[in-house]
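Record now logged underneath.
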Amino acid sequence: MRSGISSRWGGGIYPVCVAGFCSAALIAGEFKAQLGSSMDKWMYPFEFGTGGSRPVAPTFASFDPRFDTRDAEFLLGWQTASVIPANGVPSRYVLKRVRLNLTVGRDLVNNATGERVTFLYDPSFDSYKTHLAPQDPSYQPDQDAGRPVEIFGVGFRNGFDAVGYTEDSPFGVVGAFTSNTISIGTRNSFAAVFNPKGELIDIANHVGQANAAWTQPPFEARPWAVGLTDGVNSGESVPLGSTFRFDLDLSDPLIAGYVARSLASGRLSLMVSSLSPAKQVTPGGTGLGGTGAYPQWSTREDNLFPGPVLEVEGLVLGDTDSDGDGLPDDWERLAFGNLEQAGSGDPDGDGSSNLAEWTAGTDPTSAVEVLRLTLGGTAALPTLQFPIRPNRIYSVERSADLSTWAVAAGELTYPATGLAAWTGTVESPSDARFFRVRVRPE
């Protein structure tokens, strides 16, 4: 078994750039940690209880309509509280970098010829449309060889969560195993992305294999990170022992928020996935079998190559407000390098006070980054758009007189990275109405 933990925690001169501002001031809650996985499990329907003890975890796709397209995945978990404080306040976590390192632990061997088979390197995102059958009207040809390795968040079902799901937990339904009881949409732990409503959804079959129990249309699932390695060109075979790095896209507030909530709870889960097709026959499916060239990742049980390593850098903002201006000292030092600003100040002249910018999670030194509303729609169906920041809770209110405010009926969605959109329901268009967005730290 190979795993390791190292960290740097405490006060110090620590250059940080986040949300558009930088500082090298004294910040009490900085952390820089490297953690071996606390648990890892090969998520494959036919692993029969060995998924948590294997030295390698292959990731590949199935285009058999009986099973999820993302057939074999690699679940990773870390207990982070020993090196990163878990305080239950996600909005106090400022993340600088979150990187996962994985090692290719085995090659595949052609049993007939003894030839070693390696997978091809693809450092770019592939649309689900490149996986469809060529006769499908939505099909798009893949512009480069190979398939990327991707990282996603993790969702759970059937009463499991990040704490209760362990290496010994069942892949899917409990009971007698058949190809019908463990099939599309039944895995207890699954790769997940945020849908437009900000909810984690199962993407194990987003490419859209269909059977009588699954009729959902395919949809795009953007990875949280695509694996990159050095010394290999796109389309070339990946050598045994290659290390892949995955840098999570922290520019997406929903992804950054997921990580911050995980660190606040003391437990982080990620899922490794690849749509490299396995070698198989696909009766009734797309016919897109493969050569069986797919990656196999070293787990923490592997004695030949290093297991998964997570690198996390950032800081936890403390509660201390020594000058009583409503601004936490750590946040002031991070934003301004000193404690000289007042809560009512507005050094960037964007009309939002320092206290309002702290509450909204925006940059008090940039007039570009501010909570600003765009009103549209009609009197009967108003719409609002505004930027969002990680671990903030937003609500829309309406008023007829700018004095009395009430929650406005409508739906809040997230149509693009870093953007929220609110659509109001039909109300009396004769009412004089004003709108505002209230924001508070999570």
Remarks:
- The chain has two domains: 5-315, 371-441.
- The first helix runs from residue 253 to 265.
- The domain at 371-441 is CATH 2.60.40.10 (Immunoglobulin-like).
